[in-house]
Amino acid sequence: MKNRIQKRKYRFCSGVTLVEISLAMVLNSMIVLAVGVLLIGGNRGWHSIYDSANKKIRQDAMVTTLTFGSVGRKANRLSYKLYKSTGDAFLPALPQTSDPQEVVSGDAVEFRYWDVALDETDSYNLMDTSKKATAYALFYIDGDELKVDYGPYPPGGVPDDGGARNTTGVTTEVLAENVSIDEDCEVGAFSHTVVNGVGQGSVRININLTDPETDETVKIVTSTLMRNMWPR
């Protein structure tokens, strides 16, 4: 009798071991953790950027820059005034030296402009050479606030020879709070260059805005160029 050696075929069932399962779980946990860290970091970064861009001092800075620039650009270059404030009175800011060219600074600036359109019949007499504007905007520092008064011209914001600002028929708007001026700055909140006593129609503003909660400071240094001249 022949011995027959029977070969047994071993079949292994497909599947994974406990070690493989544990390793997969660890890897998945690490991926989820990494994604979570990225999401949290991105969310915090977005909130930080949003809060920084929408802080009140930044909103005030934007409003101040846009308002100052837009009003100045439409003002009459031959009729604006800079003032120094002494209490409740405003006095014209004048050159302090005999130099033909000088930077003159002040605490307030009055822009005068036309708030009506020129029609064919010139019903507002805008072409009258004695009529230099129909409205004014007086920018000034009041305590720690930057304000602007809007009113009709004439009479304007301040009498020609200085005095108390006009409060009749005036609309006052607060542009910014917590306003300050650099103590070591040689110029005031507003300044312009004069040549032989005549302003050249470019007025600068130089102020600081401070967040009272974080002491963060935003510096506003910009200028506006008056484009209109009447009478020529």
- The topology string of helices and strands comes to HHEEEEEEEEEEEE
Provide the gyration radius in Å: 34 Å
Described by the principal axes of the CA atoms, the overall outline is: elongated
Report the average pLDDT across residues. 87
Overall domain count:
2
Indicate the low-confidence ranges by residue numbers. none
- C-alpha termini separation: 135 Å
Side-by-side strand order of the widest sheet: 7-2-1-4-5-6-8
The major beta sheet can be summarized as:
7 strands, antiparallel
Instruction: Tell me the total number of β-strands.
Output: 12
Strand portion = 25-35%
Number of helices: 2
Indicate the percent of residues in helices: 10-25%
Output the structural class: alpha+beta
